[in-house]
Amino acid sequence: MYGKASAPEYRGPLGELSVNTSLEEVLAKAVEEMRLAEQGGKSLELAHAALAAAEASRRLGRVEEAEQAWQDSFRAAERAGDRGAMAWAVWSGGTLARQRGDLALARRRLAEAAELAEKGDDIVARGYSLAGLAETGRIQGDYEAVGRLHEQLLAEARRRGEARHTVWALEGIAQMHRNTGSFDTALAMFEEAAQIARDAGDDRGRAWALRGMADVRSAQGEPERALALLTEAELLCREVQLVGALAYNHKMRGNVLYRAGRYAQAEEVYRGALAEFRAMGEPRGEALSRLGLVKAEARQGRPAASTAADLDALERALGDIGLQRAGDMIAQARAELGVPAPDAVPAP
Q1: 12-121 maps to which CATH number?
Q2: What is the domain class of 248-348 according to CATH?
Q3: What CA–CA distance (Å, rounded) separates 121 from 184?
Q4: Could you list the residue ranges that cross the membrane (predicted)?
Q5: Fold designation for 141-241
Q6: pLDDT of residue 236
Q7: Distance (Å, rounded) from C-alpha 6 to C-alpha 49?
Q8: CB pairs under 8 A, 24+ apart, for 136-139?
Q9: Domain residues of the chain, as ranges?
Q10: pTM of the entire structure?
């Protein structure tokens, strides 16, 4: 049995906030608490408030403000001599690095956060940091290395009845199953995650689970059902102001439309998602939206030479981010569109 989802990254005076508190509200309260803590010379309270500001800013897509806030949180925690608070700050910085496309930096920061959390005896911060490492490895495509860690974290979350972490772990494992073609297993896990999130009042987790369900339904040839799931998820994203999740929702909508052969609609949606990712400085989402856009344009008669040049550039961009499956992804797009690889020799 799972309890209500909590937001342990909202600490100290902000601990009363829920996972579904609007991010603008979180940010406003965090800024006010930072002001009060600075006036009172309370370093630990400042660390807590700056952490909340960092996370709200990151999720709103305000990456420069998030970068400054997590560093402020770390310095305040260091002054207070609280390793747990230091771990939370570095976790936030590592999560931000992943969002900004620097996966190597993300792994270094998250490993440091896990070590600080262990020294500070903060079990929750350690769990979040290990989860961040697992998610970063999954995004890179290193399934063998992180699959076991995902399973371990899922078992721990189930044992403690932590709804939010159970949902996260289920979604991560489901995504790996989806990407390796085990659609039925992936769908069952996404559905379980969505139900746990609903029961626990975790709108953020439910929005991501619905997106995963939509992806699988689309891959199984059910576009209308997939679009309905994405619409439901979009409402949740807008209510909590999840800018990044909303952009990925829109990118997935483009994928669904593309798979259904609705290329002009897909192109329009991909363009919108691309603008959203660019505005929030999210290179992975930007590159994936560009890939969808290139494919949709190619299906509508764009010259093959232009498509080939764009795919070459995208292969480099995805590789620079650190995605191990970038080559396979682009090779699949080339084969799908009938575009030869740069070193391919034309048939006689």
Answers
A1: 1.25.40.10
A2: mainly alpha
A3: 39
A4: none
A5: 1.25.40
A6: 95
A7: 17
A8: 136/94, 136/98, 136/103, 136/106, 136/107, 136/110, 137/107, 138/172, 138/175, 138/176, 139/98, 139/103, 139/284, 139/323
A9: 12-121, 141-241, 248-348
A10: 0.90
What's the pLDDT tens digit per position in 116-172? Answer: 999 999 998 998 999 999 999 989 888 888 888 899 989 988 998 889 989 999 999
Within this chain, domains 141-241 and 248-348 share the same CATH topology:
yes
Residue indicated by tokens 């498509």? 307
Query: Rounded to whole angstroms, how far apart are CA atoms 344 and 127?
Result: 46
Side-chain half-sphere exposure of 193, counting CA atoms within 13 A: 31
Q: Residue 289 and residue 291: Cα distance in Å, rounded? A: 5
For 266, the token pair is 């897909």
Nearest of 282, 292, 213, 218 to residue 245 by alpha carbon: 282
Give the span between the Cα atoms of 212 and 229, in whole angstroms: 9
Which one-letter amino acid corresponds to residue 14?
L
Contact in structure between 19 and 6 (CB atoms under 8 Å)? yes
Cα 216 from Cα 175, distance rounded (Å) = 9
Query: Which residues, other chains included, contact 188 with Cβ-Cβ below 8 Å and sequence gap of 6+?
Result: none
Residues in the chain predicted with pLDDT less than 50, given as ranges, are: 345-348
What are the start-end ranges of the H helices in the chain? 23-40, 43-59, 63-80, 83-99, 103-119, 123-140, 143-160, 163-179, 183-200, 203-219, 223-240, 243-259, 263-280, 283-299, 304-321, 326-337
Q: Max Cα separation, the chain?
A: 79
pLDDT digits (tens, 9 = 90+) for 176-199: 999 999 999 999 999 999 999 999
